[in-house]
Amino acid sequence: MTSQDQPREGDRIAKLLARAGIASRREVERMIAEGRVKIGEEVVTTPATVLTSLRGVSVDGKPVKAPEAARLFAFHKPSGLITAERDPAGRPTIYTALRNALPPGTPRVMPVGRLDLNTEGLLLLTNDGGLKRAMELPSSGIPRTYRARTFGDISQEQLEELSEGVTIEGMHYGSINANMERRTGRNQWIELTLTEGKNREVRRVLEHLGLQVSRLLRTSYGPFELLDLPRGQVVEIRAVEVERFRKTLKGDVSNEAPRASHEHARLRVQKARRK
After folding, report:
1. What CATH number belongs to 3-63?
2. 116, 153, 228, 252: which one is catalytic?
3. pTM (two decimals)
4. Least confident of 20-29, 72-81, 266-275
5. 260 pLDDT more than 90
6. Under CATH, which number does the domain 72-140+223-246 receive?
7. Fold topology of 144-221
8. Concatenated DSSP letters for the chain?
9. What are the extents of the domains in the chain?
10. Residues of the chain with pLDDT > 70: what percent?
11. Does the annotation mark 128 as catalytic?
């Protein structure tokens, strides 16, 4: 066996910092490029630096703490908030609402995916970069369900054709399970379930069908449902449910269990207990 074939001990620093909840792996790589990450007094110059632990690592001059246990929160995002930490235009972000919504002592959390400015509903948050990345990977095939209030003429037969996928201006969208919920005149509520989560996918597909979307609400992400969670509020998902779900994911470095089907019973999120 050559030295190249020897198993590598440790992980890349970008992966370790993401798992520690510092930021997403892409954001960590940006921090490293900006010279904000050090090991002792030495500036880290590449995200490929391999470490067995984060001992001695600092970001912006602050020592990095050992990773905490993965935690997952459900947030009912209101319309009008940017899914970002900050906005150059000065518009309010999800963190504006989260300051008062998260329980005291909650570690830094990152959104799993994103919801557009005018889209509301379920947004999952986690302190674990590895879990975040695994849940966002297209290969994970996690179903997301939305309810859209639309105006225009559409039939159930047209909606069912979306199960074959659709190509719009050169962009292909995969299978979408769409069903008419109720209709009043030319106004209707439509439920859509998809697994890709491409940028503005639901709105683009519905507009392609000639519909005007006046409201868009995400009601579930994988087995986790919005249910009756009040707008702007947060609940924490029980640790046992997080670990059970984690074992179904591909791309999660902490999980070696085979991927299971996402078609299991939906899990009710449990209200976070304030300490």
Report:
1. 3.10.290.10
2. 116
3. 0.75
4. 266-275
5. no
6. 3.30.70.580
7. Pseudouridine synthase (3.30.2350)
8. --GGGSPPPSEEHHHHHHHTTSS-HHHHHHHHHTT-EEETTEEP--TT-EES--TTEEETTEEPPPPPPP-EEEEEEPTT-BSSS--TT---BHHHHHHHHSPTTPPP-EESS---TTEEEEEEEES-HHHHHHHH-GGG---EEEEEEEES---HHHHHGGGG-EEETTEEE---EEEEEEEETTEEEEEEEES---TTHHHHHHHHTTPEEEEEEEEEETTEE-TTPPTT-EEEEPHHHHHHHHTT-SS-TT--SPP--S-SPPBPPPPPPP-
9. 3-63, 72-140+223-246, 144-221
10. 88
11. no
